[in-house]
Design a protein that fits this description.
Radius of gyration: 18 Å
Protein name: Hemerythrin domain-containing protein
Largest sheet: none
Pfam family, one: Hemerythrin
Order of helices and strands: HHHHHHH
Shape: globular
InterPro entries: Hemerythrin-like (IPR012312)
Number of helices: 7
Helix content: over 70%
Mean pLDDT: 90
Structural class: mainly alpha
Length: 192
């Protein structure tokens, strides 16, 4: 039986990659004739990253999955130490993006380039972070973790309520956020 943890992490990574891709597409398109809608959906997507991956996904990886894998796989332990450092700085990085976006919105196009450069760095960083998790940590987990380990880790991840994961029941508290992103963001995350 596939692990709830592994399936959840992969689904959440796919959702996050779609949001990152949509942020890049939105940036490339720019605010056009609808700056209020543009900045609204950009803020919503950054809020999603701050609210969900930073506050739910990463803490569970760092608390439940990473320690067990590092304990059992010395080869993965070094990568896990780097991933934990990434997690420690993740909230500050997304908050900086939120601030730079607000600066662009309130201060005008003179602030666009700073946001664009920071967003591109963040996207590269985050895609690499997820790649390391999926190519080093998850395979090491599959090779080394025991059934009791999986039971505890799966129980922790079973409560995740990613508002953008397909086929998952959504937490009602996230419905407004989900609707705002899906209705205004470009494909692959939205209909806009």
């Amino acid at each position: 039986m596939p692990s709830i943890c592994l399936r959840t992490i992969r689904e959440e990574h796919a959702s996050l990659a779609a949001v990152l891709h949509s942020l890049r597409l939105m940036l490339d398109q720019g605010p056009g004739d609808e700056p209020a809608a543009f900045f609204d959906v950009m803020r919503a997507m950054l809020f999603y990253i701050d609210e969900f991956p930073e506050r739910q996904h990463h803490p569970k990886e760092s608390q439940w999955l990473f320690p067990k894998v590092a304990e059992r796989s010395s080869q993965a332990a070094e990568v896990i130490a780097q991933l934990d450092r990434d997690h420690d700085g993740g909230e500050a990085a997304v908050r900086e993006l939120q601030h730079l976006l607000l600066g662009w919105e309130l201060m005008g196009d003179a602030r666009r380039e700073a946001f664009a450069l920071a967003l591109e760095r963040y996207i590269r960083f985050y895609l690499e972070h997820m790649r390391l998790e999926e190519t080093v940590v998850l395979p090491a987990a599959q090779e080394t973790l025991l059934p009791d380990d999986w039971a505890a880790i799966d129980a922790a991840f079973a409560s995740n309520t990613n508002p953008l994961a397909p086929g998952k029941p959504r937490d009602a508290a996230y419905d407004r956020l989900f609707t705002r992103i899906v209705m205004r963001a470009p494909s692959p995350i939205g209909l806009g």
